[in-house]
């Protein structure tokens, strides 16, 4: 997990936040400076690039257009806690300056120790996304036709956990490690009723010890909940995320709605994860940022008695981080009020 997140941070930051130093950088014309923009901001632990950009810009997803590299700073593509970002104006043009925070060697008697290597600011909460993808994936049910499935636990127990021996039956591949999955939601398009994919929820990881015919003897390596008879085995997905995305508005209107909240949330807020009914088939790419229009409330006309639906209103922003053929997962970056399943995808606005 640490290696995965580290690689994602470094590569994503390369694309998202190439910083400049003493000479400063002119803000991209497409990006609008906030009315309440601070003159200076000191980066703190826990900040993300989205958080920082939102302090300066009305459109945080335009962060990549704001920064430009400058060779005067070592690793200018990384921002660290303690770094100071300042806004100033040159010839009437707003510019940003980066000043590095303090770091290096701290001497402690009777020996010399180095402080741990500083961790760069993440573009978005990568650990949360990686943990989610470790436990969720979307598949075509056809993949389950020959998948092995749990038939019994040690001493024929119905429930198993870490360290237990379990037995499974099916067609085995060359893999000796598998993830245990349970079926989740069947994703259906709310307008066309087209089947979009089957959500699979990871229960744990197991290792194949030996086989006798189509029966496998396996050891449970880890489990985040009880493993039950009938649970399915698939090659581990690993929860890897693309390491080259950067925030950008979609190239064209693709329509779509919030299809589901995989964790079953009714009131969806910032840093929650949602499923969208759009995927690679519609040209969705990692890093796409969508505005969300909250559905208008349906009320009864006090004069005619007819049901009417009030106009929708802007509700927040989501960023896509994992794409399947007909479905995508996105992280809620902003939400002024709770979002809901069925809310519409729009072009983002600051």
From TrEMBL:
Keyword terms: Signal
Gene3D superfamilies: LysM domain (3.10.350.10)
Signal peptide bounds: 1-30
PROSITE patterns per record: LYSM
Domain LysM intervals: 39-87
Short name of any one Pfam family annotated for the protein: LysM
Database matches in InterPro entries: Bact_Kbp, LysM, LysM_dom_sf
Highest taxon of source: Bacteria
Keyword Signal belongs to the record: yes
The protein's name: LysM domain-containing protein
